[in-house]
Amino acid sequence: MADGADSTQGTRTAIEFLTLWIEHGVEAKWDGLRHVTDVVLSPESDSLEIILGHLNVAMILVYKLARERATEREDVDQRAKDILRGLALMFPE
Known about the structure:
The chain has helices spanning 4-21, 26-41, 47-69, 76-90. With 93 residues, the protein is mainly alpha-helical. It has one domain (4-90). Helix 1 packs across helix 3 (47-69). The longest helix is centred in the middle third of the chain and has 23 residues, at 47-69. The radius of gyration is 16 Å and the shape is elongated.
């Protein structure tokens, strides 16, 4: 992660992957998965940047949801953590 451009590219790649993943239909999902695999396995690919991009997208979405759900007096950071704890409970070990 040499500079901000790399971080931006990872986030843009994450958005692209998520856009493909939410397509409806089995065939569309497989097409998206093939594209994701091609990009991730490409020699030019920076896997760390892709992971950081996914973290950026997740953080943006969680904070957007936290801001929408928080009361005026409530701490948005705390609300975001509460949302993540709730998600964790949906996926027990």
